[in-house]
Design a protein that fits this description.
50% of the residues lie in helices and 19% in strands. It has 27 helices and 21 strands. It has an eight-stranded mixed β-barrel with strand order 13-14-16-17-18-19-20-21, surrounded by six helices. A five-stranded antiparallel sheet has the order 2-1-5-4-3, with helices on both faces. A five-stranded mixed sheet has the order 7-8-6-11-12, with helices on both faces. The termini are far apart.
């Protein structure tokens, strides 16, 4: 079955396969039947091993073929797996081939057993129905079947007392029939019993169901655990009253242990023996299924420092020994604390803290990781110094998802490496948002516009004098398929760094101006003025003026209804080229406003040179007015001073971040012209803005009431 000489190796395999079957109980099978069985099953396995792609169905058919020809001894299965494992197979498909064969064998044996069970059940029922006609004959037939059946059978009353068992059932429990008679079913409870089995038993006794089936463990008389496939049926009299229960048990211990070995191989790293990536994610996702309110968890994402140097200089064998030693240290240090340690691949490990009590416990686990790896690792004649960097994440389960948590821990790990390695770094939401944004923009943004992933919400800007909606600010959003809806703070900055702000900015202007023109067509003078943010890179682009002129012409929007918001860093001096473009826009009829005023260089002389007509006071000024650590009285004086300054320069003032009626009223009294913030309305879809315009029949609109 090797790639070098399939014919020769195929012959060797068929010979080994035939010898194995003959060594089983093949001596009791007619030679012609045995020969045909060896050829058919061997051909199926050979094809399964060689075909591309791999077809586990063929290996399963081979296993079922053995059972169909009475090769049902578990020892035959073990011998067959040894023969398969001894063959050189392409693509490392040995475990998969063995698993598929064993699964086919087990499934066929189960079906065969179930057919026997059904035969027994029907025979028992027939015996009950014909007891009045031929009681003696029926009893004899049932007794013969009962005593000679290969499956364990027990009869009990509806109170749970065992009345009789056959020899096979006694052997399953390590004794004779007399040892089981009189025992109560409840006395056979296993501490790790299958969930739901006793609820089903109570429903059976209560007449709510006719039968149930479970794979269930029991203790033998010698203390060993035996796994069984249990089927319990209810026997009723002619009036439907429950009389007896019949239990049939098949010993599946060998099959169960085989399945456990295969599962262990599938969920554990073959090099270190730690749980692998699949097992880690299975455990993590289980935490998120039905968490308790307020439940927390922690992750320590671990990456070895300098492992590549060891691997490259001393060889992969030495690297594997180092990974095994590291895994042993981590497991010994953290598993006794109740934490799961898993190897994700390469030199990456992860520690999962279930029911974490807070950041301190997660940080303590990270320190334990570093302490466990502080001493050099002795491998042969080499003393290897190994360190690690750890990204620490601790969150409430309700605030995130498994995938997002792992990504955040991974990004935090790389922050630890960038900070100098050999340390732990705690998850920072702001840093994580920046990293996620940078990744999202760099990977997906170039095509996101074509995919229609961007959309625009509009936030009301209210005239404080009469409460009317005087304008709206266009705010771009990104409906990212993996990260959800992202706000401008999460991607616009990175878009400026990469130059992607140019096509995005043009798209926002086109969409927003088109929407504003539509409102004007529908509502006339009641339509709000449109305000759009202009990025620094856009303002300094030579094609800005022509772009806006083209957009206004194509949408039909009056330039007087467009206000562009620029930051204080847009123009760095009176000779800046951007200043010429801004003057050209104002000459065109577009108005300009300085956004977030007070957070930049705030050179008042530049305000004299800038062709702006409005200032927007940064929301942080208003927000600080409610900070108990800051002087509220001084804060209001600063805001009042900004309003007076703007009016002295002939500028209108808009206050951002207004979230209460009291703040809105105080701003109105000090002469602030416009305001926006959650008190007046959060950013909403265009349809909601249209609804509010339509409902504003009087100058005193909805917003006047909210003032």
């Amino acid at each position: 079955m090797s790639e070098a000489d399939p014919a020769e190796t195929g012959g060797e395999f068929h010979a080994a396969w035939t010898a194995m079957l003959r060594a089983g109980h093949g001596s009791a099978v007619h030679p012609s039947v045995l020969g045909r069985l060896a050829v058919e099953s061997g051909d199926l396995l050979y094809r399964a091993a060689q075909d591309q792609p791999f077809q586990p169905r063929l290996a399963g058919q081979a296993g079922a073929l053995l059972v169909d020809n009475h090769f049902t001894d578990p020892a035959v299965l073990a011998d067959a797996l040894e023969v398969l494992q001894a063959q050189p197979l392409p693509d490392d498909r040995g475990p998969a081939l063995c698993g598929a064969f064993a699964a086919g064998w087990a499934a066929a044996l189960r079906e065969r057993t179930l057919r026997e069970q059904e035969t027994i059940r029907l025979a028992a029922d027939t015996a009950r129905q014909e007891v009045e006609k031929a009681l003696r004959a029926s009893e004899a037939r049932f007794r013969a079947l009962f005593e000679s059946a290969a499956i364990g059978i027990g009869l009990g009353d509806t109170d749970g007392n065992i009345l009789a068992v056959n020899r096979a059932l006694g052997e399953i429990f390590g004794g004779g029939p007399e040892d089981m008679t009189g025992v109560r079913v409840n006395d056979l409870v296993h501490p790790e019993d299958t969930p739901g089995v006793w609820e089903a038993y109570e429903e059976l006794i209560g007449g709510k169901r006719e039968y149930f089936q479970f794979d269930k463990p029991y203790y033998r008389r010698d203390g060993e655990v035996v796994w069984t496939h249990l089927t319990v049926s209810l026997i009723r009299d002619d009036d439907g009253t429950p009389l007896y229960q019949v239990a049939m048990l098949e010993d599946i211990t060998d099959r169960y242990r085989l399945q456990e070995r295969l599962r262990h191989q599938a969920t554990h790293d073959p090099l270190t023996g730690l749980p692998n990536r699949a097992a880690f994610f299975e455990r993590l996702e289980k935490l998120f299924e039905e968490p308790e309110p307020g439940a927390r968890f922690g992750l320590c994402y671990v990456d070895l420092d300098g492992f590549k140097v060891v691997n490259d200089s001393l060889g992969h064998d030495m690297g594997d020994q180092l990974l095994t030693a590291v895994a042993g240290r981590l497991d010994a240090a953290l598993s006794p604390l109740g934490h799961l340690v898993a190897r994700l691949g390469g030199d990456e490990f992860v520690v999962l803290l279930e029911n974490c009590r807070g950041e301190q416990e997660a940080v303590a686990a990270a320190k334990t990781v570093l302490a466990a790896l502080a001493k050099p690792v002795l491998i042969g004649d080499h003393k290897l110094a190994v360190g690690a960097s750890v990204g620490v994440l601790e969150r409430r389960i309700a605030t995130t998802t498994p995938g997002a948590a792992v990504r955040a821990a991974d990004l935090t790990l790389y922050r630890a490496k960038e900070a100098g390695r050999g340390r732990w770094t705690l998850f920072d939401p702001k840093e994580n948002a920046r990293a996620v944004s940078r990744y999202a923009v760099s990977v997906r943004m170039p095509a996101a516009l074509d995919r229609g992933e961007f959309f625009i919400d509009y936030q009301p800007m209210v005239d404080l004098a009469d409460g009317s909606m005087a304008g709206v600010e266009a705010l771009v959003r990104w409906r990212h398929p993996q990260l959800g809806v992202l706000g401008p703070d999460e991607f616009v900055g990175v878009a400026e760094e990469t130059g992607l702000i140019m096509p995005l900015g043009r798209w926002v202007l086109e969409q927003a101006c088109g929407q504003a023109a539509d409102w004007v067509a529908r509502f006339g003078d009641r339509a709000p003025k449109l305000s759009v943010n202009l990025a620094v890179r856009q303002a300094r682009n030579a094609g800005l003026v022509s772009d806006i002129d083209r957009i206004l012409r194509s949408t039909g929007l009056d330039p007087a209804r467009l206000q562009l918001e620029i930051t204080e860093s847009t123009v760095v001096g009176p000779e800046d080229e951007a200043l010429k473009a801004l003057h050209a826009l104002v000459d065109m009829g577009v108005s300009l406003a300085v956004d977030d005023f007070g957070t930049g260089w705030s050179n008042l002389a530049y305000l004299r040179d800038l062709p702006v007509s409005a200032l927007k006071i940064a929301g942080s000024f208003v927000g600080d007015l409610h900070d108990p650590a800051k002087d509220t009285h001084l804060g209001w004086r600063i805001v009042s001073g900004l309003v007076s300054l703007a009016h002295t320069l002939g500028l209108t003032v808009t206050a951002e971040g207004v979230e209460s009626r009291a703040d809105a009223e105080r701003l109105r009294l000090m002469g602030c012209d416009w305001a926006q913030g959650w008190h007046f309305g959060r950013p909403v879809r265009p349809g909601e803005i249209a609804r509010r315009i339509a409902e504003a029949n009087l100058p005193e609109s909805d917003f006047a009431g909210e003032r």
